[in-house]
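sorry for the late reply, my laptop died twice this morning and i had to redo everyting from scratch. anyway the thing you sent over, i finally got around to it. pasting the sequence first so we're on the same page, its 290 residues, then the predicted structure underneath. double check i copied it right bc i was rushing
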Amino acid sequence: MSYPDAKPAQSRRFQHRSKVYHIRNILFFALIYCTCGWAQADAISIYTEEFPPYNYTSDETVDGVSTRIIREVMNRTGLAYTLNVYPWTRSYRETLDHQNTFIYSISRLKEREGLFKWVGKIVPAGYSVFTLQGNQDIKVETLEDMKRYRIGTTVNDAREVYLLSKGFDVRHFDRLSGEDANTRNYLKLKAGRIDLWPIPDAVAYHIARSQGDNPKNRLRRVYALSELSNGYYLATNINTADQVLESVRRSLAHFKASKEYMAILKNWGLEELYEQCVDRYSSLHAADEC
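ok and here's the structure:
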């Protein structure tokens, strides 16, 4: 009796194993490519607006106290990113609509809480309602009092969202949009076209100085928006991967504990606001709240 040669069967088994190894190699290198190529394929886009002194363009470079902090934080993550400056409405929409996008300097409001993933607070901020020093007849003791006056706002910014949540109607506002909306509101206030200007204190003072005015001589604070005065945040699209979020969050926490962070705040005159915030909270919670 003759027996079939075993070599063809061995050859077939070898070919089968070779195909399996080949497929495994393809999958392995595909995984490596996807992992290593993430930063290039899905580079992070960070959006902001013209909002000096927190973020603004100078000599075609994005600058400002918030921007300097964001650059330091992102550079420490090693993630590829771009900074983009647009009017607030567009920056807000881009971040809402696209994965791997971030936005700053944004107020963390109840109405926005579920729309983004929140990385953390980047800078302190104080909000007030201003009028001109010459408008001594304007009295604002409550939010309701503001409804008697013409209020200059920027479309969909934190002040508008806040006031709308407190029972105001858009008919109470003289609204502007665009990159220079805050400056134009200041000029409208000086021209007597609006009576009240809700704005962060640092922004109001910066704009007044940029127009050649002494803010203490030109502006009068008539009401403190204490509920809004909780600082500005970095936020990201709701679908951004958690590992990306945590990488940026850790980097921000570490940087805020550094001397470099305090040096930036001091350079922009914000260290006192930060220290006041730290004093309000225990050391356990200060890092999160401030």
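The radius of gyration is 27 Å.
thats about all i looked at so far, will dig more tmrw
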